[in-house]
Design brief:
By secondary structure, this protein is an all-alpha fold. The protein is built from 8 helices and no strands. The radius of gyration is 47 Å and the shape is elongated.
Amino acid sequence: MQHATRKVDPERPACHQWWVGMAIGLLALFGGWGSAAAAETANDAAKAAAIAAPALPPMTAPTWADLAENEKQILQPLASVWDDMSTTRRRKWRSIVKNYAQLSPADQAKLRARMQDWALLSTKDRQLARLNFAQSKSLNPQDLASNWEAYQSLSEADRKALAVRTVPAPAGAAIAPKPIPKEKLATIAVTRHSTEAERATASAEQPIDRKTLLPLRPASLAKPALNGGA
């Protein structure tokens, strides 16, 4: 019994491979286009969200009206100057009074006295106080406590006088020259080689004889008067 032999078309494998290659190429083309389109859509959405999102307000400390009632009670000595303080200074005062309830009555009184002193200071005195506070960090606790007690014992006039004495001189400030007494100035002799400016200066400083309109000679150079033809 003979089996029928199936004839294979020699061009069919080549045609089949061509279709497979075409399919792979189309998948790659449309797949890449889809990825690029998706990425572009995501970028557009991110840009739109960034534009639509409102700008965040700057970090600022609360005003006196925004403080809680318990904070207002503790910070009452600073009520008149609170809104004029910097954001950093307000935050520091709020952080200081967080543990106010845990302080002893004596420490609470010291803290309130410190607030009152700060409120009475001028802007210049507050800047000086910040400078002194920065310098006081190098002191040990014992010296710092003794200096604070000594300052607390001063009167208001003495505190202002101390603030004036401790104001540092501005860097690079020129010292005003002291005026030189007129009698210590050297007299410039006028000669035929003198300039017009020197002649004018000498004429303004040297007395003039009203009769001859000539400069008077100094008394030390004047000739002595002749006595009786001697």
